[in-house]
Every structure is written in structure tokens, then in C-alpha cells.
Amino acid sequence: MLEIKDLHATVGGKEILKGINLTINPGEVHAVMGPNGAGKSTLSYVLSGRDGYEVTSGSVLYQGKDLLELDPDERACSGIFLAFQYPVEIPGVATATFLKTAVNAQRKFRGEEELDAMQFLKLVREKSKELDIKDDMLKRPVNVGFSGGEKKRNEVLQMSLLEPSLMVLDETDSGLDIDALKIAADGVNRLRSPERSALVITHYQRLLDYIVPDFVHVLSDGKIVKSGDKTLALELEEKGYADISAA
Amino acid sequence: MVVSKETVEQVASVSEKYKYGFVSEIEAETAPKGLNEDIIRFISAKKDEPEWMLEWRLKAYRYWLEMEEPDWAKVNYPEIDFQDIYYYSAPKQKDKLKSLDEVDPEILEVYNKLGIPLKEQEVLAGVEGAANVAVDAVFDSVSVATTFRERLEKEGVIFCPISEAIQKHPELVKKYLGSVVPYTDNFYSALNCAVFTDGSFVYIPKGVRCPMELSTYFRINAAQTGQFERTLIIADDDSYVSYLEGCTAPMRDENQLHAAVVELVALDNAEIKYSTVQNWYPGDENGKGGIYNFVTKRAACRGVNSKVSWTQVETGSAVTWKYPSCILQGDNSIGEFYSIAITNNFQQADTGTKMIHLGKNTSSTIISKGISAGRAQSTYRGLVRMGRKAENARNHTVCDSLLIGDKCGAHTVPYIENQNRTAKIEHEATTSKVSEEQLFYCQQRGLSEEESMALIVNGFCKEVLQKLPMEFAVEAQKLVGISLEGSVG
């Protein structure tokens, strides 16, 4: 699915990722944990191709292709989905319109027939019910005036509509109370399948109680310093990052 | 039509005066370059106009001679030589194109994006023989047009070229032409009065709700848009009409200067909704070529409880100078102005409105959305004036500017004049930029950079797009995207 080799990347001329190696196979859920400033969000932006995140060396193969050659929208259409830590507001654009535009852009990319208004409405109703999202939210402009919980649920809704192959969750738990966290995690868990992989980026262990990872990696100063199974997360919670990084 | 002896003589005398003359039948269809009283007599004669019309034109011309071109707008363009323009020519004989293969592929691409059927594309691009083909091919819409005309006649609605109205309805034309925009009004409107050759006339009788949206669309295929258009719309007591101006397909136009005048008159309890989508040639990405659009549009809400709404989507022209206005004369009358002005590359737009409150309890709403990209400069210029007698008049203005890139400019110049203590005036203005964050968010969901930009900008314009009639709105949305192409990256 995804093979990252010795990845170095800079932001504004400063090296943030200093040689990342990570392989994710189909169906696997990997958690990347680490202290603030370790490069967690940078990794998610490098994978999704954001402007200003420059890869200086190393390689990323995604489904056998050179991911770094693709534009951000091509990566998205190829099945990489980034759930944003801070979902962006787009005034004046109804959430439903945004979702429909995205779904159809990806269908078009795959050479599939675009959905008409009725077909889309049926699909979005079905998916939003699972996430306890009201019709009202779909009519409001994208993320404008949404609560923290609504924003994250909106991200998970988009993910379930777009059905990506690789889900990258950037601090999905930040700003969520426990109920909202459960709903979001349930949404992600429903999407878990033998073909679909996930990269869960988080600062705290608590998200991993709900989205249970197969592997846990500790990112520190731009490098993965330790890898293990889900018990590593618990260990981190207990001892803190300082200990592990020093180890 | 009867050609008076006098007219014939006039034409003859004009011919004599020019050394190049009108040597053949074909050349007689075009007056020589330049402007003088003989040219105006020639135009009037060509249109077979009554004496009073000619007199009016001449008065306007003489007044115009004394006027100076306005220079207060925030636009720059080379000086116009008014003696280097043809003021009368029969429909242009452009180089005939044999097929769509010969049409500029850039234009064809825009047609495709707008979803214009192939046959209509041929007509718009001026492919030889296409007009006939199109008439056959779009037989439906032609018969629809005829059905429309019959229905309109049944209701007593008059919808015809203004030259026809001058012949057939002189009493209405005499009463209202120039009553909202007098020939003394401004430099370009004076010029228009002197030399206009084409335009629309609409009269909605008392108590009639016009059964359909009136559109110039049907006329555009028949005749080229005039360089100096003149439109007059009168809504009599208790009537309603919605009028759509323009065509969203870009027409390459040889006329660089356009100076149109539009006058609207709403009588007691009447309502006029006037929607424009303007997409004339803006010049190339280096700022070469493009149309100068210097238009005077004004409405008189003369009757009590009358209402006029202007809605405009301006994406074309190299230089735009345009302020659709309302004179709120009748008590309780309402004026509205909803505008989207998009400028890209080297386009310049100085546009806005004037709301002149004269009557009691008059109210006006202004929503202006200006979008600048490339090196474009966009200015909102608006006047709200509360007259001495405008008791309890109200105005609400919202003026939003959106910048794309860092080489463009947006300017807001509101003028507020209040002579009545009871009047309420509100003005809100914002300036924002399309953020990299927003673009990336959209792209991460699978939209291309340009689709992302179009979506964000459409969201910014939403309040105004909603005011457009349904079929116009869909095309306008697409147009927003097309106009901004090349503005990102």
C-alpha cells in the first residue's frame, strides 16, 4: 500500500522530517505518536502534497506508484484521504454541494458516471445517519460556525463518502469531548477493511482506545525512534515521550 | 415604411458632402468614419425616423460637443479618438468562416465549458450559413419565440427593437425616452443619444404581470449587439417584468467602445427586475485588446410602492465604467443592486450604483461582490443620497472584495449624503483573500486547483448568484470559474 523510504522534508527551508521509514500493508492501521513539533502533521502534509512542504530526498511508493510525482488532487483521487486537524471553512458553499463536487470529481477521475442530485442525496443521507449528522448541517456552509465535534464528524463523513484506500487522520481527537470522539472513532472503525489502511496521527493515547492500531510508532525530531504494537501506546502514556525519545 | 422625400434628400446631401461619398450600394450601408451632424442625419434617415427624433439626436450631439470625457473613475486607457469610429454600419461582414474548425480554439473551449450546443456555437462564432442551419436546428426555440410573441401580444406587452417602437409607439417613446437619463446627463450618454442605432423597447401595460422572462437572447442571434445600444423599459401601474440582458457566450467583437444607455421606469406598484450577464472580450492575458464598456443604466421608481432590482454579473470587458442606479421618487419605493464584478489579468472595473432617495419610506439594498485576480483593479463606487423629503428612508450596503494573488487591487469608494434626520444608512465592507488553506482543502478532496478556485469564489458570490433567474444562475456559476482560469498557480 504505502512504502516510505528515508524521507527527508523541509518547511520554509528548515528540515522537519529527517529520514522516515515506514511501510503500511493493506488493512493495517498504524498509529504515529509523538511530542509537539516532532513532525507528525508535516508527515501528513507531505503525503497529501501540500504546497510548501518540500521533499529533499527519499521516496514514497503508493500502490506501486511514485506518490511524490502526483498533484494533491491526483493523490486524493487515487485514494489518499487526509482528515484535517483543523478543517477549513469555505463561506457560501453548502456542505452538501462541497461533498457532491468532491464525490463527482473523484468519480470522474476514475472514469465513472457522475452522480445526479437524487442519487447523491440518497447516498449522503445514508452515510450521515450513521454519523448522527442532521440534514441541517449539510445545508450550512462548509465548516462555518461548526462546533469542534461537527467539524470532525464532517471529516469522517467525507471519508465515508469518498471511500479512500489510505486514511490519514491528523489529530482527529483534538478538541473533541468523549462522546464526539466515540462517534468519530466508530465512523473510522466502520471503514476498516482488509483492503483499506490507516495512518492515525495523535498526541494522546486515548484515541487509540477507540481506534485500535496494529502498529504504533514514535516520531521524535523527524525520525521514527521506536515501533511496536498497541501496548507501546500505553507505555508512552505512562512514561511520557521524554523517556522513549531518550531511549 | 414610408421614406419621406425629405429623408431621401438628406441622405443625398450627406453623400455629396463627402469626397469619398457612398459610391456603391454596398458602401452606402456604412457611413464614413467620424462624427458630425451629417452623420447623425444619415443614421436618423437610415432608421426612417420622425423629425422629433432627429432633433433630439442633434440637440444631444451639440451638447456633447461642449462636454469633456470624465476622468474621475479609477481606470486607465489610451485616449479615445471619437473621429476614428464608424457610427453607422450595416451588420458587419466579417471574414466568413467555413466551419467550426476555423474558429479560435480558445473560444470553442469556452463554449464547450458553458455547454452550448454545437449548432448554437456555429451561430455565435459566425460560421457561414450557420444562421440558416441554426434556424432549422433550433426550430424549437424559434417556434417557442413565436409562441412567446403571441402570448405577449395577448397580454398587451410590447417587446420590440427600439427603432420599431419609435415608428409604432411614438407617444410612449416621446414621453419616456430621455426622461430617466437626459441627453445632458453625461459624456457617454449624450453620445449615445446622438448616435444610437439599436436596442430594446418594453412596455408592460397596467395590471399585467409579464408571463415570461424577457430576454435579448432571441434578438442576439438575429442581429449583432449594437455598439451604442439604447434600451427603454416601462412598467405601468401594478405591472411586473423580469428582463434578462446579455448572453453568456463570449462574442469577439470588433467594436472597442461600447456606450449603452438603459432607462427603466416603474410606475405605481410596478416592479422591474433587470439581470445582466456581461462577458465581452476582456483582452488577452497581456492586457492587449478588449472592450471599453461605458454604460449608463438608471431606473426611475416613479410610482408609489414601485420596485427595481438590478442584478449584474460582470466578467468581461477590458475597462468597465458602470453604475446601474435607482431614483426612488415614489413613496415606499424600493431599489436593489446586486453585483458580482470579476476582473482578471489586466482588466479594470469601476462599478457600483447610485441610490437617490427622494420619497418617504423609500429603501435600498446594495450587495456588491468584487473579485480581483492577476493584475486587475476593481473599484466599487457607490452613492447613497437621502433627500430632504425622504422621511424614514433606509439603506443597507454590503461591499465585499476578494483578492486572488498579490498583484491585483480592490478599492471601495462609498459616497453618502444625508439631508434627512430620520434616514438610516448602513455600510459594511470587507476585504479577504482566497487562502492557500482553502485551496488545499478542496484539492485534498479531489478537486483540481481551478475547480477549487471556482467553488470558493462561487461561495463568495452566493448571495448575488441567488438573485439571478434560475437558468441564468447556472451559466453564471460556470462563467465565474471560466473567468478565473489561469489566476492560480
Description:
The complex is a heterodimer of chains A (247) and B (489). In chain A, 39% of the residues lie in helices and 29% in strands. Chain A has 247 residues and is α/β, with parallel strands linked by helices. A six-stranded mixed β-sheet of chain A has the order 6-9-10-3-11-12, with helices on both faces. In chain A, strand 4 and strand 5 (65-66) form a beta hairpin. The longest helix of chain A has 15 residues, at 95-109. Chain A is globular. The model of chain A has no long low-confidence stretch (mean pLDDT 92). Chain B is of the alpha/beta class and 489 residues long. In chain B, helix 8 (162-168) crosses helix 9, helix 12 (436-444) packs across helix 13 and helix 13 (449-465) packs antiparallel against helix 14 (470-483). Chain B is globular and about 65 Å long. The interface between A and B is medium-sized, with 30 and 24 residues.
Q: What fraction of residues of chain A sit in β-strands? A: 25-35%
Compute the average pLDDT of chain A: 92
User: What value does the Rg of chain A take, in angstroms?
Assistant: 18 Å
- Main interface pair? A-B, 30 and 24 residues
What spatial order of strands do you see in the largest sheet of chain A?
A: 6-9-10-3-11-12
Return the average pLDDT of chain B rounded to an integer: 80
Q: How many H/I helical runs of chain A?
A: 10
The total of beta strands of chain B comes to 19
Along the chain, the helix and strand elements of chain A come as EEEHEEHEEHHHEHEHEHEEHH
Number of strands of chain A: 12
Q: Give helix % range of chain B.
A: 25-40%
Q: Please state the overall shape of chain B, judged from the principal axes of the Cα atoms.
A: globular
What is the multimeric organization of the chains shown? heterodimer
Ranges of chain B where pLDDT stays below 50 over 5 or more residues in a row are 7-28, 129-144, 217-225
Low-confidence sequence ranges of chain A: none
Number of DSSP helical runs of chain B? 14
Q: Estimate what percentage of residues of chain B fall within beta strands.
A: 25-35%
Shape of chain A: globular
Question: What is the structural class of chain B?
Answer: alpha/beta
Distance between the termini of chain B: 59 Å
